[in-house]
Design goal:
Layout: H1 2-18, E1 24-31, E2 40-48, E3 54-60, E4 64-74, E5 80-85, E6 88-90, E7 95-98, E8 103-110, E9 119-126, E10 132-138
C-alpha cells in the first residue's frame, strides 16, 4: 500500500511540474493605504502565457467610483505626468509590470478607507480572454515578487 501511495504521489508531482502555465496570470498585487474619497493606485505583474496577443480593455471595482489605466512618465524637466490609457496591449508571452512611477490601475474616488492588511477586489476585462478577478493586498511598500519568472 505504501509503495502505491508513493507511486501516485510521485506521478502527481511529476505531472504538476510538467504542466505549462496557460492564459493570463496576475501576481504580486498590492496597493498603499488610502483614505475614503481619495484616489489609489494598484500595482501588479500581468503575464500572458499564451502565443496569442490580447488586450486589457477595462477594469471595474465596487471599491471605487471609477477605475482607469494610467501611466506615469517623467518629462525632460523632471516633471511627472500621469496619462490615462484607453487599454493595455498584451503581446504573446508578454509580461507587463504595473509599478509606482509607471503603469498602474487608478481607483478613482474610493468608497471606503483602505488600511494595511485590507484587500480590494478589481475585475480585469480583456478583449480575447475571460475576466480575471484580482485582489490587491494593502501594504506600505511593494512586496517581493511572489512569482518570479526567469
Amino acid at each position: 500500500m505504501k509503495r502505491i501511495l508513493m507511486l501516485v504521489l510521485g506521478t502527481v508531482f511529476l505531472l504538476a511540474a510538467c504542466s505549462a502555465e496557460n492564459g493570463i496570470e496576475v501576481h504580486t498585487i498590492w496597493m498603499r493605504p488610502t483614505a475614503q474619497g481619495e484616489n489609489a493606485a494598484i500595482y501588479f505583474v500581468l503575464h500572458n502565457h499564451s502565443s496569442n496577443a490580447d488586450e486589457l480593455i477595462d477594469a471595474t471595482s465596487e471599491a471605487a467610483e471609477a477605475v482607469e489605466f494610467h501611466e506615469s512618465t517623467t518629462t525632460a524637466g523632471d516633471v511627472i505626468q500621469m496619462n490615462k490609457l484607453s487599454s493595455v496591449p498584451l503581446g504573446p508571452f508578454a509580461e507587463i509590470k504595473f509599478t509606482p512611477g509607471g503603469m498602474h490601475i487608478m481607483l478613482i474616488g474610493l468608497k471606503r478607507e483602505v488600511r494595511i492588511d485590507d484587500h480590494v477586489e478589481v475585475v480585469l476585462h480583456f478583449k480575447n480572454s475571460e475576466d480575471l478577478t484580482i485582489v490587491a493586498h494593502v501594504e506600505d511598500t511593494a512586496p517581493e515578487d511572489d512569482h518570479p519568472h526567469e
